[in-house]
Automatic annotation (TrEMBL):
<dbReference type="InterPro" id="IPR050272">
    <property type="entry name" value="Isochorismatase-like_hydrls"/>
</dbReference>
<dbReference type="Pfam" id="PF00857">
    <property type="entry name" value="Isochorismatase"/>
</dbReference>
<dbReference type="Pfam" id="PF00550">
    <property type="entry name" value="PP-binding"/>
</dbReference>
<keyword id="KW-0378">Hydrolase</keyword>
<protein>
    <recommendedName>
        <fullName>isochorismatase</fullName>
        <ecNumber>3.3.2.1</ecNumber>
    </recommendedName>
</protein>
<dbReference type="GO" id="GO:0008908">
    <property type="term" value="F:isochorismatase activity"/>
</dbReference>
<dbReference type="InterPro" id="IPR016291">
    <property type="entry name" value="Isochorismatase"/>
</dbReference>
<dbReference type="InterPro" id="IPR000868">
    <property type="entry name" value="Isochorismatase-like_dom"/>
</dbReference>
<feature type="domain" description="Carrier">
    <location>
        <begin position="73"/>
        <end position="148"/>
    </location>
</feature>
<comment type="pathway">
    <text>Siderophore biosynthesis.</text>
</comment>
<dbReference type="InterPro" id="IPR036736">
    <property type="entry name" value="ACP-like_sf"/>
</dbReference>
<dbReference type="InterPro" id="IPR036380">
    <property type="entry name" value="Isochorismatase-like_sf"/>
</dbReference>
<dbReference type="InterPro" id="IPR009081">
    <property type="entry name" value="PP-bd_ACP"/>
</dbReference>
Length: 149
């Protein structure tokens, strides 16, 4: 059914991690499907069995991830929330106006690249160049407040 729909990845959650979930991951791997076991969305009889299943899959047949890794990185819900994300990244003690160049306030390229990578999970077209062309809170809010397609 996955192949018919053009998919090759399987996210696995549930109970009995060391029985059904681990077996499902291994079976998927044998069928050229990439299994992802969600460690914090699995249950088992004991901690040891839970960890054994995660270790087995991670070492042999799939990838073990946390729920947070599968969810899109949140973008700020408002311009004020964007400011709260940006201000701790600045070197200056003065707060910039929304149309001030954030590079003038100490925002470096490494932090800008990290923001681009985070926001790209929601808006796939956002990249470092796009942020660097107009590094202001106003410009970035315009990018982030667009409707997600």
């Amino acid at each position: 059914m996955l192949k018919e729909s053009g998919r090759n990845q399987l996210i696995i959650t549930g109970v009995y991690a060391h029985i059904g979930c681990m077996t499902t991951a291994t079976d998927a791997f044998m069928r050229d499907i990439k299994p992802f076991m969600v460690a914090d969305a699995l249950a088992d009889f004991s901690r040891d069995e839970h960890l054994m299943s995660l270790k087995y899959v991670a070492g042999r047949s799939g990838r073990v991830v946390m729920t947070e890794e599968l969810l899109p990185a949140p973008v700020p819900a408002s311009k004020a929330a964007l400011r709260e994300v940006i201000l701790p990244l600045l070197d200056e003690s003065d707060e910039p106006f929304d149309d001030d160049n954030l590079i003038d306030y100490g925002l470096d390229s490494v932090r800008m690249m990290a923001l681009a990578a985070r926001w790209r999970k929601v808006h796939g077209d956002i990249d470092f160049v796009m942020l660097a062309k107009n590094p202001t809170i106003d410009a970035w809010w315009k990018l982030l407040s667009r409707e997600v397609k």
